[in-house]
Design brief:
This protein is 41% helix and 16% strand. It is an alpha/beta fold. Helix 1 packs across helix 7, helix 2 crosses helix 4 and helix 4 packs parallel to helix 5. 45% of the residues are buried. It binds nicotinamide-adenine-dinucleotide (NAD) and thymidine-5'-diphosphate (TYD).
Length: 343
């Protein structure tokens, strides 16, 4: 069945990759990107589809109910896919307000419009809602124990989605993805930050001992999973998406430096992030039963991503000036450098 999707946050990293996937795969589908264009939104990410008649762009905020209503009615939307969020943990520690507004109130606004117009609703969530997992892997039924303002705002969104399904019988689905890497990721996140710092001859600020574990997955794999869940997922359910294997940040840095043929001397251990979740890992058997498998290991995903940044300086060099410099100074300027990070 051809769909018309409202893709909120579609000018960001994962949203843009998802828009490319949908327009490439489904000739009958139409996509309305609805995006506020915050510092993380970038129309360059959608330049390739700008002239596609099946694509429309709306510049607006998901907290603006009238704007969401107008987009939905004007374009005959049948499905809302919500990628729009404030998405960076470090920013949520220094400035949490925008996270509550967009990730909680914005999600609520979208759910209200979906309810009123009888639309399907998909929420793009994160494994961070489970909080730190000392061992084993988080399953979808595990308690949500978020520990950063970002994770808490995403968990609140998940709970609202669930409540709307139960209370109003709405058709909802949720995916909880692990750390994505790939083209168009804003260089505040660790892999593009470290790749571009290394390419510029700068240092790689590893938080603490660097033995925290993350499941770095290829963004294209994640987008395929979201697409499958939107089309085949059971209403009311959440699905974890990841490779199922987590690696340490030090292992990630080694793959990154080896791909660039750069020295380990670029590594600089710095003061840790407050409340830093030591380990995330998800059980992906539920989405595998739906018919999806990850195509890249974390190491393959990181190496492929680093190569994209090598090949696309025209995308990231303009971003790493201006406002980005101010952010970098604020987040890293006063962080102590650790002489013996394991101590
Ligand atoms: P991103 O920060 O790159 O992009 C977010 C996009 O949302 C931007 O285009 C921004 O302009 C837009 N936006 C922000 N506030 C908005 C608002 N109020 N109204 C309309 N648009 C708004 O984020 P991303 O990394 O692409 O993440 C997308 C989604 O996936 C988020 O919901 C995030 O929580 C989730 N997620 C991300 C990861 C990851 O590793 N990046 C992993 C799992 C889940
Ligand atoms: P990040 O990309 O911010 O994603 P998240 O915190 O949502 O998992 O960070 C990934 C990992 O890298 C996380 O353990 C924090 C660590 N990290 C650093 O060591 N240095 C950095 O400069 C950044 C941004 C992250």
């Amino acid at each position: 069945m051809p769909r018309t999707m409202l893709v909120t946050g579609g000018a960001g990293f994962i949203g843009a990759n998802f828009v490319h996937l949908v327009l490439r795969t489904y000739p009958q589908d139409r996509v309305v990107v609805f995006d506020k264009l915050t510092y993380a939104g970038n129309l360059e990410n959608l330049a390739e589809v700008a002239d596609d008649p099946r694509y429309t762009f709306v510049h607006a905020d998901i907290c603006d109910r009238a704007a969401v209503e107008q987009a939905v009615t004007e374009h005959g939307v049948d499905t809302i896919v919500n990628f729009a969020a404030e998405s960076h943990v470090d920013r949520s520690i220094t400035e949490p307000d925008a996270f509550i507004k967009t990730d909680v109130n914005g999600t609520h606004t979208l759910l209200e419009v979906a309810r009123e117009h009888g639309l399907r609703y998909h929420q793009v969530s994160t494994d961070e809602v489970y909080g730190h997992v000392a061992d084993g892997a988080s399953a979808e039924g595990d308690p949500l124990e978020p520990r950063s303002p970002y994770a808490a705002s995403k968990a609140a969104g998940d709970l609202l989605v669930h409540a709307y399904h139960v209370t109003y019988g709405m058709h909802t689905t949720i995916t909880r993805g692990t750390n994505n890497v790939g083209p168009f990721q804003y260089p505040e996140k660790v892999v593009p930050l470290f790749a571009t710092n290394a390419l510029e001859g700068g240092r790689l600020p590893v938080y603490g001992d660097g033995l925290q574990e993350r499941d770095y997955q290829w963004v294209g794999d994640h987008c395929e999973a979201i697409d499958l869940v939107i089309r085949e997922g059971v209403s009311g359910e959440a699905y974890n998406v990841g490779t199922g294997t987590s690696i340490t940040n030090m292992a990630m840095v080694e793959v990154l430096l080896d791909t660039l043929d750069k020295s380990r001397d670029l590594i600089q251990h710095v003061e840790d992030r407050p409340g830093h979740d030591r380990r995330y890992c998800v059980d992906v058997s539920k989405i595998e039963k739906l018919g999806w498998t990850s195509r890249h290991t974390p190491r393959e995903a990181i190496a492929r991503t680093v190569q994209w940044y090598v090949d696309n300086p025209g995308w990231w060099e303009p971003i790493k000036s201006g406002a980005f410099r101010e952010y970098y100074e604020k987040n890293y300027g006063s962080r102590a450098v650790l002489e013996s990070p394991g101590a």
